[in-house]
Bifunctional diguanylate cyclase/phosphodiesterase
Amino acid sequence: AKRTGGSGYAFFEPHMNAGVRQQIELQRDLRLAIERREFELHYQPKVNAGTSLITGVEALVRWRHPTRGMLSPVLFIPVAERFGLIGALGSWVIDEACRQVAAWSAQGMRMRVAINLSVHQLRQDDLAKRISAAIAQHKIDPVLLTFEITESVAMEDAESTLQMFEDLSRIGVKLSIDDFGTGYSSLSYLRRLRVGELKIDRSFVQDLEFSADARAIVEAVIGLAHVLGLKVVAEGVETAAQRDVLTRLHCDDLQGYLFAKPMTPEMMTKWVEGDDA
Ligand code: C2E
Ligand code: CA
Ligand code: CA
Ligand code: CA
């Protein structure tokens, strides 16, 4: 297949492949969707490995597309990043998550919410300002917010990441390194980053039952994180066997379909109150 990335010219090629054409359509729809607010945040709980009690939720964006149904962020986040729409979408996500934290507070639920940040958001000079504005507007406690940044993004431009993490931690929000284990962060770098949490990538969790290597890596990561005073969350936990191994390895929190899929805020509230099915 020929290269299709980047140039405007490629968009008008008659033999353009279906994938590219779809991206362009998505891009056009996405602009409208941002104006029309066709997005929703769903929430997936994280639970303490020892007690199974909820420790917080991760906000995951969905697009209620008028004709194509509910679309996954895997489909549209890369498109939003590529076409410069992630700033607007990301701001909506931050604002909506803060609004939900406030709504839960009003219901007497002190819920911690984790928000994903993309590479372009992290490189926006006014990110910290936008976040503090949303926190102030919704009158929420900043410690209830965690921002998740993937390890590869955090590593990409170490200096600017350090600066941004410093700005963010000064606001009082928490920081987490997502998809940990897929990049090659150095120990000293992690110490300087002011992160409080590592999320072990699902690929390691999947291999836990079958691979002694995966178990050794996860055990080492948890040990290292604990030495550094970091909390460890395992993502994508689907089986009881995975849960048992992770618990034995002293993983702090677990997240995955074994406990719950991402849910609407209403379902999330019910789940917390204990009348989920
Ligand atoms: P992520 O941050 O690694 O989020 C975890 C993904 O794994 C979510 O997919 C979640 O639904 C899924 N997941 C959770 N438990 C399990 C499990 O047990 N098994 C399997 N197979 N999957 C599980 P989702 O919601 O489709 O999100 C995909 C990615 O899109 C996220 O990966 C994140 O990188 C990105 N994303 C989602 N929401 C946002 C957002 O608001 N902003 C930004 N910038 N990115 C977002
Ligand atoms: Ca995440
Ligand atoms: Ca992740
Ligand atoms: Ca992942």
Confidence is low (pLDDT under 50) at residues 1-12. The chain has twelve helices and nine strands. The first helix runs from residue 18 to 36.
